[in-house]
Amino acid sequence: MTPALKEYRVRDVKRNPKNPGGGKRYDELELLHLHKSLKQRQWMPIIVKEPEMYVLDGNRRLAAAQLGGIDTLSGIPVMHELTPAEINRLIAQLDIRHQPFSEIARGKLWLAIREENGWTNVQLAEDLGVSASLLTKVFGNVENPEEIQQMVEDGGLSLRDGYYLSRIEDVTERLRLAHEIAAGKVKAESVAGLVRKQKTPDNNATPPVRVSRITCPLPSGVTVTISGHELSLDDAIKAAGELLKEMKKARQENLDGKTFSAVCARKAKTERGVP
Q1: In the beta sheet, which residues pair with residue 8?
Q2: Which end of the chain is more exposed for a tag (fewer CB within 10 A), N or C?
Q3: Which has the closest alpha carbon to 107: 83, 133, 143?
Q4: Looking at residues 104-129, what average pLDDT do you find?
Q5: What pLDDT digit, counting tens, does each position of 141-188 carry?
């Protein structure tokens, strides 16, 4: 749950010199546009470290407010220094409450949180308090080409439209359909039908080759081996992705390679019900 909001006098808070964006100079024209926007609506609270009264997130908004005419900013007080990952999680909760972000910006933020914590979609959904199906739609939009993302941003396509399009394998066809949907020439339901048809197995298709081991020597001199029962290349890709997430999480916890290997072995035994 996000902390309660409070009002801060602009003259009482300062930009954070420790923050990568806290001490830099901002584009004047950009600040003028933001200043005008803030006077109309303060759409996102700043995050303030107390008692020092410096801004952990929202330095650009503070700089814009300092141009004059804005006396107070809504903010959230925190009593300890937050890591970038903690700030992202707090910003995500604020966005869920106030809905200031676009669909694509929200998706990129949620994706960053998932990667920072090495979570699955289900774990991320539990942390954010949203449905896993919503995450699937949001992340599908982030996978689309920028042209389609922009159409979602501009309202020409819905989040649902963008998700269906992201399931079309051929990117050229995806772009064509996006313009057809935006122009009202094709219904989103038709695209959903194409997706379902695409997923229908072709009985005449050649079955994937399955092996017990896939060994990949890399130019760096490292050899990666994935073994299992009747592995296809897709199985190996999925396994490698899961392993990468676990390794990133282990690195954040400062585990060494030997400890990480032991943790993985123990976790695998537990999930298989092996004593």
Answers
A1: 73
A2: C
A3: 143
A4: 87
A5: 888 898 999 888 888 888 888 888 888 888 888 898 889 888 888 776
